[in-house]
Fold this protein.
Amino acid sequence: MIRGGLLLILLLAGCGDGGREAAADRAYAEGRADEAYERYRELARDAGPELWARLAAAAMRAGALDSAALAYDRLADMAPARAREAAEGLERVARAAAARGDSAALLRAVVSLERVAPGRPIGRFALPLVRSARLADAEAVRLLPSALAAAPGSGVFDSLLLAYGRALEATGDCGGGAAAYAGYLRRGPAADAGAVRAGLARCALEVGGAALAAGRAVEAERWLLVAARDTASDVGRRALLGLGDARLAQGDPIAAAIVWQRALGSGADDSIGVAAARRISALGVTDAAGDSARMEEE
């Protein structure tokens, strides 16, 4: 009975986590990466960093790149002293994902690498990602600066700069978006210059309006002058309303009346024209056709 009981205890011990971990180690050592990966994954929930490191290596060898990136990320969280090891593993995952064209795994690895080792350059990984993957705007804003730094030529740089401006605008950073649009336009003629100027005007209107609401009339005037150049849409006319407000706030009612007259247009009765007419009427200026040196800026 004692011998039988001892055998049962040994068998039960062999079926515990220690035995299962040993089986996973054997599978990995013998080149059965898929089996090792599955076995490690079953043990990983309550495991320590050493097993997570082995799980990452097995996942990498098995081609489960997304899981490998997650495991290396987890390793860095659990054992900060092993962050360098995790970062090197994430770079291997990123290289393999880029070679395979696996955008999901590449994104996972690059985002984790940026978090685990923020000082490491990621441009060589971010560049193929932003050029081939459909990224959310927030992800594009995060990765495009690194991709721009790694751009191989002016054509690629220009396309990425434009994408960066659009992503910044979409995420509400119109100050950054306007700077990117203006930089793109300064780099030379482009077939889509009209659309880019429209984007610049939208952003300039938003930034200028925010500055005006905050009482920074001089700053608002500078941005609204940019937006007012868009004569192909109502963005420019709305900018003229704000520009008049900014000039009135600076003590120049004549200049304010002139730009409001321009916003009014040829007897326009839309909401912008009505707002411009009300401003002119409230100001009490009967002749808004005079000149002002400040209008020369436009």
